[in-house]
Each structure stands twice: as C-alpha cells, then as structure tokens.
Amino acid sequence: MADRTIGGCVNKDASIHSGTGFTVDHRSKGLYIITYNERFTNPPAVVLTQNYPGWEEFGSTGGDTRDNAVLVASDQLKFQVKTGLSTGDADDRNFAFIAVGG
Length: 102
Description:
mainly beta; four-stranded antiparallel sheet; about 0% helix; globular
C-alpha cells in the first residue's frame, strides 16, 4: 500500500527548489543522492525527470529530448540520480522527483 509520498524539485547546484522531507548531496558532476528524512518501510517507487533550461523558462523550446535523468539506485532511505547531456556525458541539471511507497 502506498501511504507515503515525497516529491521535490532540485536545482543543479543541489539546493532544493521545492519540496520537503529530504536532503540533497551533490557527489560529482551530474550525480546526486537524495536522502529521505524518514525511512520508507520498503523501497518506494521513484520517478524523476530533468528540467532544462530552468523552472520558469516558459519562453524556451526546451533542450534535446535525449538529455535525461537516470535513477541509478534506490532503497528505503535514499536514491541516486544521474543527470546529463544528449551526448551521454554527465552534467549538473535541475530535476524533479516523486517517491511513493509505504
């Protein structure tokens, strides 16, 4: 049963744009670890996507559709995400996530 949801928007510099209940650690270029303030009972389902070029850039036509955010690992306490360029190279990017579980 999914009785808990945590979501947020993270800026490329690892500051929190919106959301609560988590912290962000910027490990290296394009690599972030999100740690939940409270452990889930089981690993939650984590869905994420990259934001480019910026949260309120409504005049932009966006980036390359191959730019991406990848869920690298996930457990009851944290998940790791890698963001990058359309070339496959890591790059610091804004991203949004939602974690749902019990």
